[in-house]
Amino acid sequence: MTDLALEPASRGAPQTSSRGAISIRNVVKTYGSGASQVTAVDDCSFEVAAGEICMVVGPSGCGKTSLLNAIAGFHDITSGEILIDGETICGPDRPMAAPGPDRVVVFQNGALFPWKTNLENVAFGPTMQGTMTEAAAKARARSLLAEVGLDDVAERFPGEISSGMRRRVEIARAVINEPRVLLLDEPYRALDALTKQVMHEALLELYYRNKVTIFFITHDLEEAVFLGHKLVISTARPCRPKTIIEVDIPHPRDRSVITSPRFRELMEAAHEAVRQEAVAAFQAGDKEG
Amino acid sequence: MAAGPTGVAVARSPYALRRAVVALAACAVLWQLGARLDDWTGVGAPGVGALPSPVEVAMAAGRVVVEPGYWISSALSFVRVMGGFLIALAAAVPLGLLFATNRTFRAIAFPVFEVIRPIPPLAWVPAAIIFWPTQEAAITFITFLGAFFTITINVLSGALSIDPRFVEAARSLGASRMTVFRRIVLPATAPSIVVASSIAIGLSWEVVVAAEIISGSSAMGSNSGGLGHFIWASYLGGSYDDIIVGMISIGIAGYLCSAAVRKAGALLTPWINAR
């Protein structure tokens, strides 16, 4: 709790990329007990550098979300520990991290509050934490919405705008808190390919302006290679890093990198690593079903 | 759902009013035909044949609506419905939320609640007359029962079906547990409260009449018993046209109340129709 209590003081400082390093060390997460016990994450260790975009790639249902939930503080871990900037948020002494605005989640199908306007949704975090007055939070929210091209729908409810727009509002709702880590759980899964492209560029633009560590779960390889500094390719359930691919295409990136030979090579490498796991997951599913 | 930035609430069909009028008129015509079938063919229509015709009822209504007694009866019933309904709303919303948020309390109190819930409000009438000091209180208690269980159950299920991601998102954005209740659970349950209320006020109208018929006939004069008593007195006095007038009055009153609740609800939950 103390770290959260101290947060507001540092909030006014300009964001630097020296915050938000994630260390995942020997994390195990099991559900249930006895014969029905399922291991979702098994002895998982990897590092995410501060200000890095880390894409966690793996077949659906492999336990990636369990890892994200542990970092966010929604679920506990069975053993191991997770550190942010060298500070243990969950570990042997404390299996469940406290959820907080330094690690904000953008959910798979979106979780904007339908009873609040888009502007109120974005202003929710700072208002709740008391780091800004409501008026200041709304002013900041308005400028963030303008940054993602949504100032004209600020006063509308989330139910009134398209799902692509909702995703942008939700990312603005996260970014306004100046989190150390932005946790994205397949945020663009339900979007069509064209909207997805626009979303990717909008996310990168936002990232270049507000440097923050991004922990991004996906199973879309093109998305992973286009956005990430690094791909952590997970094994099929239980989740454990199988291969880590460093994407050496320099940022800032735009759509043109997709046609570059290096992009194709990296896609091919990622594809090969994922394919083996997808086959394994498929066969395991066959046995269970 | 694919509403763009200009997407507004789906406009009500411009034909809606016309269709409603036509449907009501068609019912009246069928009823008139049914009621007069015996005169024309010698064979009475089943059921409707025994009723006064709509023309007779309309004439009776014209006579009744200028009598102050009718309006006093209506007002009495209205006050009883609103009294019972508002008390039920005030009690059932906190109870439903408590059931939803506190497992221990639910484990203790919910079985008791579930045993009492299936008892029809009308079965309560004799007991209510015995243990409430005045008849007024007894009838209001019955209208309370009519609304109370429905609202509680709907609020409970509404609160239980809140998307857990809303709570997680709020916690992650820095809301305390208390704030989550006020800022998330309450607004997320609001649509259920509105729907439950519009159903419940109709149920209160359903039970008020029977409660008045059973309890109101003894001590009160003919003008003080509410619409239920009005119907019963008309039956005893043999003025069958007035029975129908009383019935239709209740239908209209129930409809207007439900519509008013829905309207108020729409104002309280502006995000619901804004898509």
UniProtKB/TrEMBL annotation, chain A:
Pfam families noted in UniProt: ABC_tran
State whether keyword Amino-acid biosynthesis applies: no
Q: Which CDD domains match?
A: ABC_NrtD_SsuB_transporters
Q: Residue limits of the ABC transporter domain?
A: 22-261
Q: Which family does it belong to?
A: Belongs to the ABC transporter superfamily.
Keyword terms of this UniProt record:
ATP-binding, Nucleotide-binding, Transport
Give the matching SMART domains: AAA
The species this protein belongs to is: Hansschlegelia zhihuaiae
- Stated name of the protein: ABC transporter ATP-binding protein
Q: Name one GO molecular function term.
A: ATP binding
Automatic annotation (TrEMBL), chain B:
Q: Which InterPro entries match?
A: MetI-like (IPR000515), MetI-like_sf (IPR035906)
State the compartments where it is located. Cell membrane
Which PROSITE patterns does the annotation name? Answer: ABC_TM1
The protein's predominant localisation is membrane
* Keyword Transport belongs to the record: yes
Q: Where are the transmembrane segments?
A: 16-34, 78-100, 112-132, 138-163, 184-205, 243-261
How is this protein situated with respect to the membrane?
Multi-pass membrane protein
UniProt-listed GO biological process terms = transmembrane transport
Give the keywords, sorted: Cell membrane, Membrane, Transmembrane, Transmembrane helix, Transport
Q: Which domain of life is it from?
A: Bacteria
| SUPFAM superfamilies listed in its UniProt record | MetI-like
Domain ABC transmembrane type-1 residues, every copy:
74-261
Q: Name one Pfam family in it.
A: BPD_transp_1
Spell out the GO cellular component terms annotated for this protein, sorted alphabetically and separated by semicolons: plasma membrane
Gene3D superfamilies assigned:
MetI-like (1.10.3720.10)
| Cell membrane listed as a keyword | yes
The similarity annotation says:
Belongs to the binding-protein-dependent transport system permease family.
Report the protein name in the record: ABC transporter permease
Identify the species of origin.
Answer: Hansschlegelia zhihuaiae
Q: What is the lineage of its organism?
A: Bacteria, Pseudomonadati, Pseudomonadota, Alphaproteobacteria, Hyphomicrobiales
